[in-house]
Design goal:
Helix content is 71%, strand content 4%. The chain is mainly alpha-helical and 452 residues long. It has a single domain, classed as Amino acid/polyamine transporter I, CATH 1.20.1740. The strands form 2 sheets. A 3-stranded antiparallel sheet has the order 1-4-5. Strands 2-3 form a two-stranded antiparallel sheet.
Length: 452
Amino acid sequence: MGEESVDHETPLLHSDISPKRTAHIITAVIGSGVLSFAWSVAQLGWIAGPASVICFAIITYVSSSLLADCFRSPDPINGTRNRSYIDAVRVNLGRTQTLFCGLLQNLLFYGTGVAYVITTSTSMRAIQRSNCYHREGHEAPCSYGETIYMLIFGLVQILISQIPDFHSMEWLSIVASIMSFTYCFIGFGLSFAKVIENGRIKGSITGVPEASIADKLWLAFQALGDIAFAYGYGIILLEIQDTLKSPPPENKVMKKASMAAIFITTFFYLCCGCFGYAAFGSLAPGNLLTGFGFYEPYWLIDFANACIILHLVGAYQIYSQPVFAFGERWFTKKFPTSRFVNNFYTFKNIPPLPPLKINLLRVCFRTAYVASTTAVAMIFPYFNDVLGVLGALNFWPLAIYFPVEMYMVQNKIENWTRKWIVLRIFSLFCFLVTIISLVASIEGLISAKSSS
């Protein structure tokens, strides 16, 4: 066993090929969100549901394009790199907004990790239930707890979280994106087959009927929060962009990667959401592949849920690595002479495996982080409500407000010019959507907790 100092400067991954960046984005975007789209479309109806998905896709592309131009400052092509989202905010907007951004961004990373623990445990349990229903019939109780599956996922993530940094996990993103395509195809195919079996398209223009207008509005606004969550990759866009080199300019490559990823994911969202609603109508499950609208073929449902589990192993890391990097940088600056913080211990493995490098801070900090997300998921295991809260929290401040403000500062856009007015209206509209979605989702989360 040897000892060496840590090099805290991560070298850039020298690649200008956008498909790998697209894989990162797809891994971040297609996740828990796609499974709730049938439910979301059901709450909104045949007109407002698909229209909302397309609207959020357009908004996401516009905001990601603005953010991609903020990767370098002051010039988007020849300026200095901002290697993370919070670095870009610090350079363009100052200390106060940086503190607010950092708090909110890390809260969203943490919350997304919680959501992925919930989703993964739901899929693990769905495999058990699917096999049980196949053996004992669809009316069998087949009840299984969630806690053990959350603990299993947490243990796996403790191991996977030792991947050093964002630049070392491209292989995991590629595997995860392949898994996401696979289970989306299965969800779409099963929904399409169900529509054929029914012989008609279920659903209505107004969506699921409710006892009162207030109840209808609560659920519709919560559905908007779920859709917003499904497009919430902007908070890691600059971290993904930092894996590029120029030429060509990083912002141009990133815009192309974003367009490709958003087009692909929106296609799958519409397929799963619309065909899921067409298949089940008002009974569309909150989670398309675990809500047991589908029972057979049980092995295909098992396989789809296995793909979800593998995908979320990677997606969890996509959203956790920035938190790990932020925390470990802080400890390094705070305790520059600490051996616990700064030293690696090398263990020589059996050839041909490479030597294993262990940093005590990394092991302890990342283990504690994964354990805490698992514990919170056990307390609030409410899939749709958690997604709505996270989507609303992320949508306006991180996906809209900061990109718009940074873009205007960097490009010196003067007040009351045409571009200034358009960007302000764009930001205000998204702010209103965020407020109503957040209130509705918090109400749903409180109601679910109080009724459990």
